[in-house]
Design a protein that fits this description.
With 160 residues, the chain is mainly β. The chain has one helix at 3-13, and strands spanning 24-33, 36-41, 56-61, 68-73, 81-87, 101-105, 108-112, 117-120, 127-138, 144-155. The protein is built from one helix and ten strands, in the order αββββββββββ. Strands 1, 2, 3, 4, 5, 6, 7, 8, 9 and 10 form a ten-stranded antiparallel sheet that branches.
């Protein structure tokens, strides 16, 4: 199974199923939807690290050199911004590019083709992900949202 397909499968079925790697993630994402700013924050203005457990699901993948991360607010009511996944690059099995930022806003899936940067630290398992100023479209009708910023620090991002 390809890395992209495995990551997408994980994202669609969390928290029931997740990657073998459950990294600690700290960060914050802000998305503008219909003049409302939606925020996904791990705590302390994105400084607190969270890990997979009762309130969060986390994933990070470095398979085949394709860096990606996912953070989902799990079992905590119905937050307006519940999931964000950032892929440095993402291709479908046929080689076509696919949206590399995927999010769930008010129970609807949005995706965009964004400039996602992943910087590996001194420890190759330490990765900083960021993206900003990018249009996101709702899959079924093209309704627009705007990724203002997303910045996440992932500890222990490992190959599976």
């Amino acid at each position: 199974m390809s890395s992209m397909r495995r990551t997408l499968l994980v994202m669609l079925s969390l928290p029931a199923m997740a990657c073998e790697n459950y990294p600690d993630i700290a960060g914050k994402a802000s998305i503008l939807l219909d003049d409302e700013t939606l925020v996904l924050d791990t705590g302390d203005d994105g400084q607190r690290f969270v890990k997979t457990g009762e309130r969060w699901s986390t994933a990070c993948d470095t398979d085949d050199g394709e860096l990606s991360m996912m953070l989902e607010r799990a079992r905590d009511g119905d937050p307006p911004l519940k999931v964000i996944a950032l892929f440095v690059s993402k291709e479908r099995e046929n080689g076509e590019l696919a949206p590399n930022v995927i999010t769930e806003l008010k129970k609807q899936r949005y995706g965009g083709f964004c400039d996602v940067v992943a910087t590996v630290g001194g420890d190759p398992r330490d990765v900083e992900f960021s993206a900003a100023d990018c249009e996101l479209l709702r899959a079924f009708d093209g309704h627009r949202a705007w990724l203002v910023s997303a910045s996440f620090h992932v500890k222990e991002c490992e190959n599976e």
